[in-house]
Write a structure and sequence with these properties.
The chain is about 45% helix and about 15% strand. By secondary structure, the protein is an alpha/beta fold. It folds into three domains: about 70 residues, Winged helix-like DNA-binding domain superfamily/Winged helix DNA-binding domain (Arc Repressor Mutant, subunit A, Orthogonal Bundle); about 55 residues, no CATH class; about 170 residues, Rossmann fold. A hairpin with a 2-residue loop joins strand 2 and strand 3. Helix 2 crosses helix 7, helix 4 packs across helix 5 and helix 7 packs across helix 11. This is O-methyltransferase.
Amino acid sequence: MATGGDGATPEQGAGPERMVRLLAGFEVSQALYAVAKLDIATVMNEGVSEVAEIAASTGTDALAVKRVLRTLTDFGVVEQRGDTEFVLADLGATLASNVSGSLRDLAIMLMETHYLPFERFVDTVRTGRPAADIYFGQSFFEWLNAEPERAEQFSAAMASVTDGMQSDVFSGYRLPAGELVADLGGADGSVLLRLLREHPDRRGVVHDLPAVVPAARTRVAEEGFDGRVDVVGGSFFEAVPVADVYVLSTVLHDWDDESCKALLTRIARTAAVGARLVVVEMIMPITGEVHASKQVDLTMLGMVTGRERTLPEFTDLLANAGFRLDRVVPTAETSSYEIIEATLTG
């Protein structure tokens, strides 16, 4: 079972000691990966707290498990109750598969698709070219979509992120007017289904790559949206469905300005003047305040050609494709995401 835990990053020591811990961050990432991948967090979330029992339930080495969990106490992931007794903090529970909003799939995907490419990050800083391009010899999305299993893993991870953020981002939010809503790059459709629950008179379309279509169709059926929501496979750079409202949830940050303009222009050429656009993204602060978008931007730098953007950059990006930014909708204080609404002006 999970307990409270503040999830604080350790600040022990100053100067060199803290820098050593930052430099060893890759070790913490691997420890979190092991706890997620080997279902250690899942077993602990069922109430198992003794190291020997955790190891027996997961087929792992008891001493190794103890040492991993002991280290993760410094990061607010677990709490130590005795020499061999550990319980999950709320932060650690996100790595269990048996919780709502689990990030287990994300933890596994990041370590199995992002970790190794980042060994070429020095080359990225030197040249501006994504480390993934250098490591894989092709773009990350080309590599990802070459194998259906990879695409499915990525889609599941992204779905876990959107599942976790939905209540904070969309609580109380209502879509702009329009009968048909298209979610482009909609993964398993969870965002669209959440939005349409507030609008029972509207229909929807989930649009994503063909490898993602089966997962979306399954979710649409399981949640009772057959007949209201269609699922269409394809590249949104080549074609998009005709709709009144278009949703782009954490899509634009994956792409450079030229690619974003191509996507937005594709929408503009398909939709009628007055069509609405709903963009869900982090908005990079212009000042030096602490914000999650800064580390996500590092991921974009290393893996793809995209980036996080400031509000003026979003305004220009939309305007260059014929959209007027109407408003930014605030979300819960616990969320780093914001909702941008725009209108196609022609």
